[in-house]
Amino acid sequence: MAALGITVALLVWMVSLLLISLWKQILSSWNLPPGPFPLPIVGNFFNLDLKNVPKSLNKLAERFGPVFTLHLGFRRVVVLHGYKAVKEVLLKYKNEFSGRGEIPAFQEYANKGVIFNNSHTWRDVRRFSLSILRDYGMGKQGNEERIQREARFLVEELRKTQGQPFDPTFLIGCAPCNVIADILFNRRFDYNDKTVHRLMRLFNEDFYLLSTPWLQLYNNLSGYLRFLPGSHRKLLKNVSEIKQYTLEKAKEHLQSVDFSCPRDVTDCLLAEMEKEKHSKEPVYTMENVAVTLADMFFAGTETTSTTLRYGLLILMKYPEIEEKLHEEIDRVIGPSRVPAIKDRLEMPYMDAVVHEIQRFINLVPSNLPHEATRDTMFRGYRIPKGTVVIPTLDSLLYDSQEFPEPDKFKPEHFLNENGKFKYSDYFKPFSAGKRVCVGEGLARMELFLLLSAILQHFNLKSLVDPTAIDLTPMAVGFGSVPPHYKLCVIPRSGL
Ligand code: HEM
User: Fold this and answer.
1) How many domains does the chain have?
2) What is the pLDDT of residue 28?
3) Residue 198: how many CB atoms within 10 A of its CB?
4) Span 432-449, average pLDDT
5) Residue 29: is its pLDDT beyond 70?
6) Distance from Cα 439 to the centre of ligand 1, integer Å
7) What is the extent of the structural domain holding 343?
8) Would the pLDDT of 460 be above 60?
9) Residue 128 above 60 pLDDT?
């Protein structure tokens, strides 16, 4: 009798809990933007093609409009689609939606550093990182000189391939990696250095894994999937190894730092740590310094390197575009002077090609997830604090009004009828607002200078007929990952 009583009490208790949780769910979902009906536990995963989530979001926007809701596992997600909605969220509601949605694959970095920080320390670390990046970007050993120096090393290394086929992933990737390594750690790596190859492999593998279907599931259902075997374990290990590297660098720096004369970003972060050493709640702990460095190292290498690699593949498919670039470089820069930023003003075609590469490859289609920092009324909907907010970037970059035939690679998207560079406010591959990419200026400078330097010295040669080159990404998720390929670079005759 007593056992029956306990069982009934337990049942009543569980049913009450279930009803309370359902009630809470209904209450918090009340007045959310429209969206497809969610199933229990999995929510709207059946509405998504995990091989191409950004494409599924575009399709859902056709059905539900520019602001819609999805339930992905435990997460309530509001998606913004199109110029007006995305800009409104990023610029008009810049504080309300400036949180960072959780990315469980980077749980070790959560609430530290800049990118994955959704805590009160983010504002401070971001502001400080921006100011030191700015300081190291200006002046005599500024970013332009830094990139120009690396461009010379890159050209030298490309010459060593002697016209033979090679995989550009690590060779080309080494240039942006060295530029950011110089800013962060006051060092550059030899192009054959084992450590830099290991680090770049980790960055590259992470970017790919993050874009696979399994990680789309994991990042939303990590509560269920955490203990299962799968590629998320590899990713978690890689992320940890990268942080281990930056932690070691920070410790090494600590041995020799002179706070009155910082050598690099690491020293500046350590100086902040030193200032706070008697504080009860310091922002700059060794952990936080290591994650801040890891953020900038990973984000500063993989993004620019992938853009360059994708860009070269595109140019091989369109030799007539490459030809026009050679012509412009020869006319403005000539054969031997190293390209400079001032050349951009006289090189509208190169400027347009670099923009079109970034638009077309759509590197981070769905942006990084944001989060509502407080309950917010947006276009008549109530978006509760903690809701993940996705201001999609591909919906701007592939807008067919702004960029007619968006699926085609056309530098003319950024040129006016007189052949001058044409600005577009829809060009937002770095996002906008409070979370806008910290490395935008650096990345744009690198893309222009490094691509100009490569084409100044070499013709690109594909191993297959240019018309047979397939530009379809090999994975689309967090990022758009270019297909693997090899190419030859042939020194330009007479130069
Ligand atoms: C082609 C190159 C790059 C692209 C397309 C790119 C794109 C992006 C995007 C879309 C975001 C998310 C913005 C948001 O949440 O709204 C971001 C954030 C970030 N990027 Fe970049 N990025 C590039 C290069 C770089 C470089 C060179 C650095 C090096 C310093 C960098 C550092 C960061 C950091 C630290 C954040 C986090 C900002 C925050 O959460 O407050 N990125 N980037």
Assistant:
1) 1
2) 60
3) 13
4) 97
5) no
6) 6
7) 31-491
8) yes
9) yes
Write down the pLDDT at residue 426.
Answer: 98
Residue 243 inside a domain? The answer is yes
Give the chain's mean pLDDT: 94
Q: Whose CA is nearest to atom 9 of ligand 1?
A: 430
Atom of ligand 1 nearest to the CA of 176: 27
What is the average pLDDT across 353-371? 98
**Does the annotation list 437 as a binding residue?**
yes
* Dist. CA 311–CA 313, nearest whole Å: 5
**197 CA to middle of ligand 1, Å?**
22
Task: Identify the pLDDT of residue 137.
Answer: 81
Banded model confidence at residue 10, pLDDT cuts 50, 70, 90? confident
Which of 104, 49, 47, 89 lies closest to 71, judged by CA?
47
Mutate to test the pocket of ligand 1, among 116, 295, 437 (most ligand atoms within 8 A of CB): 437
Residue 468 forms part of a structural domain: yes
> What is the arithmetic mean of pLDDT over 144-154?
97
37, amino acid identity: F
pLDDT digits (tens, 9 = 90+) for 394-432: 999 999 999 999 999 999 999 999 999 999 999 999 999
> Residue 18 falls within a domain, yes or no?
no
The CATH number linked to 85 is 1.10.630.10
Per-residue CA distances from 324 to 166, 366, 494 (Å): 24, 32, 18
Within-domain flag for 19: no
Which residues does residue 166 pair with via DSSP β-bridges, in sequence order?
Answer: 487
